[in-house]
Amino acid sequence: MTFKDFDFKEKLQKSIEDAGFKEPSPIQVDAIPVILSGKDMVGQAHTGTGKTAAFGLPLINMMKGNNGVEAVVIVPTRELAMQVSDELFRFGKSLSINTATVYGGQSYSRQLKHISTAGIIVATPGRFLDLLRDHKIDINPSFVVLDEADEMLDMGFLDDIKEIFTFMPSSRQTLLFSATMPNAIKSLAKSILVEPEFITITQSEITNSRITQTYYVVDDYERDDALIRLYDFKNPEKSIIFCRTKKEVDRLSTFLVSQGFSAKGLHGDMEQKQREEAMNAFKKGKLEVLIATDVAARGLDVNDVSHVFNYHLPFDSESYVHRIGRTGRAGKDGTAISIVTPHEFKMLQKIQKDTGGKLEAKVIPNIESVKEKKLTV
Questions:
Q1: Structural domain range at position 213
Q2: Residues near 24 by beta carbon (within 8 Å), at least 6 away in sequence
Q3: Are residues 36 and 181 in the same domain?
Q4: Would you place residue 377 in the very low, low, confident or very high pLDDT band (cuts 50, 70, 90)?
Q5: Rounded to two decimals, what is the model's pTM?
Q6: Residues β-bridged to residue 178
Q7: 16-37 in b/e burial notation, b at 16+ Cβ within 10 A?
Q8: What is the tally of structural domains in the chain?
Q9: Is there a contact between 112 and 136 (Cβ–Cβ < 8 Å)?
């Protein structure tokens, strides 16, 4: 199955192709037709299954585009709000649908200005409820999405969410996504959804079983040395290193070039021409290493990437799945390696729980074993 089978609007289909999306994931296959039919829906799916596109694409397809705020997406954290907002903006841009991100810690006036031109609001519960209570916004959305409902429950947002729905129109389509289904979520679903369809995606469908996932524990100051030693030992043909920030991408690409690697960075602050040059060189095999941020690599579709390195773990499991999904494509085996400090163990455990993936702990090869490997190759 391909995205063309959903018969989306032409401009939306083009945005999907530009983003490098080829085949829909299991949650997208199941959820998109239900959402397009106008029904309410409960989707039990973990982070990293492609949920944002599963609800975002059909909603954008159904939006009129000139009607003020037509859709509201409520998420637990500001990081997720920014990530979901970026992805929805990328899909909606060609249809002139803007997104506004609403979370605490940012000025009200700036957020209100964005809302005034937006078709979609992506919000955390607390700040969104403030705006509704104070009558700072007057919206009448046709679509309301609760994403990661169980996370919001764990963070104590249940009462806020119930109150938010008192401000929402009764004639709306409501979608709820949750990795787990505790009783509180079931009763919330009963109170805010009307005869919903239930869709469940199993753990085994999240990550590609052809990808070997390992992690190496180091202290923060040892990351660069660890990376070089792993490169010398693994000798990858074509690899991507993921960093959290643009600054890190720039620093690391300079460092790797100084170590004799043919490497280039890829991030959102680079000019389009520079990004295209780096991408084309990597695709044609003129570059061994591409160093990228999550956002820059979202639409990356290269089949022969042998290794993916996480210089830092990402902030969420969905980004982890996207990152490691750059390898092990087109039926080939792939290797995903994460460099982790003891401070990141909690995040590592969360990624394992969310994705159902098995990350094996390994020890950084010492200089003797690297030399030995080079002599036997």
A1: 207-376
A2: 1, 2, 3, 6, 32, 50, 53
A3: yes
A4: very low
A5: 0.63
A6: 44
A7: beebebeebbbbbbbbbebbbe
A8: 2
A9: yes
